[in-house]
């Protein structure tokens, strides 16, 4: 993933990005 690429490997980064965006979507909606 982009935001987490420095802290996690690519697969984990994408997973955490998805989780983070999903949580943000719930918070907004």
Notes on the protein architecture:
With 29 residues, the protein is mostly helical. The chain has one domain. 66% of the residues lie in helices and 0% in strands. It has one helix at 10-28. It is rod-shaped and about 20 Å long. It starts with 9 loop residues before the first helix and ends with a helix. The mean pLDDT is 65.
User: What's the overall average pLDDT, rounded?
Assistant: 65
Distance between the ends: 24 Å
Oligomeric state of shown chains: single chain
What is the β-strand count?
0
Main sheet attributes: strand count, strand direction, barrel closure: none
What does the radius of gyration come to?
A: 10 Å
Tertiary shape:
rod-shaped
Strand fraction = under 5%
Overall tally of domains: 1
- Poorly predicted regions are none
Succession of helices and strands: H
- Given the structure, what is the number of helices? 1
Helix/strand/pairing category:
mainly alpha
Estimate the helix proportion, in percent.
Answer: 55-70%
């Amino acid at each position: 993933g982009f935001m987490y690429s420095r802290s996690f490997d690519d697969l984990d980064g994408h997973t955490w990005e998805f989780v983070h965006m999903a949580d943000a979507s719930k918070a907004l909606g």
